Amino acid sequence: MVSTRAALLFGIGQDYKIETIEIDEPRAGEVLIELRATGLCHSDEHARTGDMLMPHYPVICGHEGAGEVVAVGPGVSSVAPGDHVAMSFIPSCGRCRSCRSGRGYLCDDGMKLFDLGMITDGRVAHRIGTEPVARFTQLGAFAEHQLLAESSVVKIDQDIPWTAAALVSCGVATGFGSAVNRAEVRPGDTVAVLGVGGVGINAVQGAKIAGARQIIAVDPVAFKREQAERFGATHVYASIEEAIAGVGALTRGQMCDAVICTFGVMLGGLLEPALTLTAKGGTCVVTSVAPMAQGQTDLNLFAMAMMNKDIRGCLYGSSSPRAQIPKLLDLYRAGILKIDELVTKTYRLDQVNEGYADLAAGRILRGALVF
Fold it and tell me: Where in this chain does the record put each Enoyl reductase (ER) domain (predicted)?
C-alpha cells in the first residue's frame, strides 16, 4: 500500500481538500507514478459545478499530468521504472475496433472513465480510511502519486520539461487537433476560435501552424484576447455578435471556413451563432463540454442543409494519444509549437483552489501544479 497526498473534491460546489489517501501497489497491467506536474484544466471544474455529474464522491480531479514511473505490475511492457510519462485521459488499449482502426481516441475503455474501480480489473484501489475514492477520468492527477492502467500513460523523452509534458496530454492535444484534425484547416483558410482558454489558445496556434490566413479569436476577457494575438490570432473580438459583424466585413460576407467552439461551457444557444459565423460549405467543430443535461440546441436546419454546413463533435483533438503526444512534443522541441508560454503561473498542490480562482477570474491562461 502507498500513502500519498491528493486534492479531493467531496461534493458539488465545494473547494478541494488536501488529504492523505492509500493506493494499492500495481497489479497486472498497472503503473504507479510519481507526479511532477499537472495542468489546471477547466474540464475539472465541470465536476465541481455539477455540469458533469460524478457517480461517486470523493473524487481526485486532475487529468492533465506527467510524472516518473515508480513501479509496474506484471505484464506491463511499454514503460519501466524510471521512465517519464504523460497521462492520457483517453485510454488506448490497442485491442478494440477503434484502436485497431487508428482511432484510439474512441477506445472502448473510454466507457470506464468514470467508473469507481480500476480500468484493469474493476477493483477499488484508492481509499481515504475505509472510504473509496474515485479519480476523474481514471487519472486523478491532483495527487503526489497515482496508480494508473498502462493504457493511460504514454512514454515520453526524458529531456521534455514536466509542465510541457503535462499540458500536451490534454489541452494542447485537444485544441491543436480541433483545428488540424477535426476542422481540417488548410493554408489560406479563415478560422474562428470561440473561447480562448487552455484549449482554445491551442486551436489558435493549431490553425496558424496549419496555414490559416486569418484567425479570429473571440473571448470576453481582455487578457485572453491579448494572449490569442501572441499565439497567432489576426483579429480579436469580445463577443460573437461583434465577431459576426466584423468577420462579415472582413470576408466580404463569405464568413469562416472553420469555426471551433472552445467555450468554457457549451450551451445550446451558442451553436446557432457559431453556425452564423460558418461559411457555406464550412465546418463547425464543437469541442467544448456541455452540461450532461443539455439536451436542446437552437439550430436553423434549413440553413444548415441548404448551405451545406458541417457540425462535428471532437474528442481529444480526434487523434490517438499515442500518436498525438509524441508528434506535438516534436513540434515543441522544434520551436514550432508554443507550450512553455501557455503557463501563466505555477502552484503547489495545496494552492489548487487558488489556481482555479485565478482561472475563473481570467487572470491566467493556464496554471500548473508543480510537485
Answer: 13-371
Q: pLDDT averaged over the chain?
A: 94
Which domains are assigned to the chain? 2-169+339-370 (3.90.180.10), 175-314 (3.40.50.720)
The Cα–Cα gap between 257 and 254 comes to 8
Q: Give pLDDT tens digits for 134-189.
A: 999 999 999 999 999 999 999 999 999 999 999 999 999 999 999 999 999 999 99
- d(CA 256, CA 309) in angstroms, rounded, equals 11
Burial 310-342 (b: 16+ CB within 10 A, else e): ebbebbbbbbbbbebbbbbbebbeeeebbbeeb
Nearest to 262 by CA among 356, 199, 313: 199
Give the whole-angstrom CA distance, residue 103 versus residue 105.
5
Residue 50 binned pLDDT confidence (cut-offs 50, 70, 90): confident
